Amino acid sequence: MEVSVHSLPARNNWKTGSPFQFCFANSRTPRKVDVTVRSQAKKDKVLFVMGATGTGKSKLSVELADYFPVEIINSDKIQVYKGLNIVTNKVSEEELLKVTHHLISFQEPDTDFPVQDFCHHANVALNHIASKGCLPIIVGGSNNYIKELVEGSSSNFKSNFDSCFLWMDVALPVLCKRLASRIDEMVEAGFVDEIRGIFDPAADYSRGIRRAIGVPEMDQYLRAEMAMADDTTKKALLETAIAKSKENTYKLVTSQLGKIKHLMDDMGWKMHRIDATVVHEKSGEEAAYAWRKEVLRPTLAIVKEFR
């Protein structure tokens, strides 16, 4: 199905005359979808937006709310925790207001959130969203969580849901260059201050939000600050911490891509690959045009057919 770059479907056109028009209705409004779907024992549908960190998964998912009645379920195992919005690169307050998000910023920072907990909360959210006639979008880079949700031995996911998997992909050299720039931008936006705000010399970096890339890497620098080290020492330690954060982000990307390949090659998952490389090679209006042409247009066609 072709969708012209210059004539994308009208935004929010699902709100009028659509079978999903009661998605966001209040409790006094009749809901037309539930009875029909359930009575026919029809499977509900779930859209997954997968890919390595920094490829544009969240941006795409939020933009889909302009064209379809959707709610988003976060599947990033670090973004479930409260705090560190810059460090963990969470969606903005504006984006949270635009489309309902589940499983984001709700877990206490120093607690564990094992895959079993994710599956439980995700299933609750899925059933809630589907009961309103909306399309759930599961978004995030924690592929182990997604695999367990879909394939877990105690899961009845496949019996209840039809799935569509989108894979946001960017050529590795291009993505790594973009991620390096993004970390520099995060530092300018308050990355160090956020981590300083939760710094505890006795903290356990293997639990909770302190596993986030950037937090363990900043440890030596923040210890030097507490010890009143000289500026030269602190500057060198900060540069090392930022460099390690970039290096560990590249390693994360490699791991994420390996797991996606496993899901396709070994588990037989059929994924729609969306190549966003050209978007990250450009800037300004050229990048915006490339996004509409290479990412948004094919995604809209895929989702429209899936629904």
UniProtKB/TrEMBL annotation:
Annotated EC? 2.5.1.112
What biological process terms from GO does the record include? cytokinin biosynthetic process; tRNA modification
From which domain of life does this come?
A: Eukaryota
Q: Which reaction does it catalyse?
A: dimethylallyl diphosphate + ADP = N(6)-(dimethylallyl)adenosine 5'-diphosphate + diphosphate; dimethylallyl diphosphate + ATP = N(6)-(dimethylallyl)adenosine 5'-triphosphate + diphosphate
Q: What Gene3D superfamilies would the database entry show?
A: Crystal structure of tRNA isopentenylpyrophosphate transferase (bh2366) domain, P-loop containing nucleotide triphosphate hydrolases
Sorted alphabetically, the keyword list is: ATP-binding, Cytokinin biosynthesis, Nucleotide-binding, Transferase, Transit peptide
Q: What protein name applies here?
A: adenylate dimethylallyltransferase (ADP/ATP-dependent)
- Identify the species of origin: Erythroxylum novogranatense
Q: What is the lineage of its organism?
A: Eukaryota, Viridiplantae, Streptophyta, Embryophyta, Tracheophyta
